[in-house]
Amino acid sequence: MKKLARKWKKSGEDDREDDRFSLPTHDDLRPIDTQEQEELVRSFEKNLAQQSLLWRRVFAAILLCYSVFLVYSIYQQAWSPWELRYHAYFMDEVDSWMVISADWAAVLVCSVAVAGLLLDSRYHRTCLWYSCFGGILVAVFWSYHMLRLPRFRWDVVWLPFGPLSGAGICLYVDHLLSESSEEVRKLRGYMYAYKAS
């Protein structure tokens, strides 16, 4: 019985020690004053701007690396045609200049998507949509010629869907970042509406 009483007493002391490290369980009824609201909203805006720039640069860098790879692929196809395996599959189906043109179109799609991500103008979303439409054209070209091959090659699926996926992901990232920006703007609007009432 004494053991049980000691355990109970000891657990009560432990609970009081743990209370120092726990969050309060009741709300503080004091509202945030205007200065604190302004600082909070400003910190959200600053954080959003930093995060937006970071993620735009990350996805732009990934797409630029893919574009550099495509330029290398164009160079290889121009100087030693059909040496690359993923182009050699199409040797009997397509002329060399068409492969080079399709790769240049893919580079253009990626470049327009990068410009849409990094430009800070009101037309950046238009650039992203144009890159998606260009990606669809590249995907149709490569898909048509892939389906004409005697055997479907899964290892070159990135040829039709690489630029389209890159442009689509950039459009999605831009959409997410603009939604976050809109939420911060709403928060600032709520703050001013609260001041007016």
Automatic annotation (TrEMBL):
The chain crosses the membrane at residues 58-76, 96-119, 126-144, 156-177. InterPro entries: MFS_trans_sf. Keywords: Membrane, Transmembrane, Transmembrane helix. The keyword Iron does not apply. The keyword Cell inner membrane does not apply. It comes from the Eukaryota. Residues 1-28 are annotated as: Disordered. Residues 10-28 have a biased composition (Basic and acidic residues). SUPFAM superfamilies: MFS general substrate transporter. Belongs to the major facilitator superfamily. Phosphate:H(+) symporter (TC 2.A.1.9) family. PANTHER family: HISTONE-LYSINE N-METHYLTRANSFERASE (PTHR36784). This is Uncharacterized protein.
